[in-house]
């Protein structure tokens, strides 16, 4: 994993800089194995996934699961592609 220096962006008050580390949450079917599927989808489009950041949560009824993970996006286009790729999956309802 490469080290990215965000100190100047933070000093300037700019938080949406590329390259950068971004958190994404996908919400979808609880029985779809999203905890392993979401990182694989991001990796397939060439993004570095920070697996140690992965967290999951089931809805009270257990029908849906949210998966949150951090990834490194080199450009705005790759950031947008991450959301589009996850949203295109039949087991994912939406992303945040």
Provide structural commentary.
- It is a single chain.
- The radius of gyration is 14 Å and the shape is globular.
- With about 100 residues, the protein is α+β, with helices and mostly antiparallel strands.
- It contains three helices and four strands; from the N terminus they run αβαββαβ.
- Strands 2-3-1-4 form a four-stranded antiparallel beta sheet, with helices on one face.
- The mean pLDDT is about 90.
- It is about 30% helix and about 35% strand.
Number of contiguous helices:
3
Report the sheet with the most strands, covering strand number, pairing sense and barrel closure.
Answer: 4 strands, antiparallel
Q: Look at the helices and sheets and give the structural class.
A: alpha+beta
Ends: how far apart? Answer: 24 Å
- In the sheet with the most strands, the strands line up as 2-3-1-4
**β-strand amount:** 35-45%
How do the strands and helices of this protein lay out in sequence?
Blueprint: H1 7-11, E1 20-29, H2 34-44, E2 48-58, E3 64-73, H3 76-88, E4 92-95
In a few lines, what is going on in this structure?
The protein is of the alpha+beta class and 96 residues long. It contains three helices and four strands; from the N terminus they run αβαββαβ.
């Amino acid at each position: 994993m490469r080290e990215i220096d965000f100190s100047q962006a933070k000093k300037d008050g700019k938080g949406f800089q590329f390259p950068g580390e971004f958190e994404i949450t996908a919400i979808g079917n609880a029985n779809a194995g999203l905890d392993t599927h979401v990182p694989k989808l991001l990796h397939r489009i060439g993004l570095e996934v920070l697996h140690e950041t992965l967290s999951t949560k089931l809805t009270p009824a257990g029908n849906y699961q949210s998966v949150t993970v951090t990834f490194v996006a080199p450009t705005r286009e790759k950031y947008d592609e991450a959301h589009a790729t996850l949203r295109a999956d039949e087991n994912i309802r939406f992303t945040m």
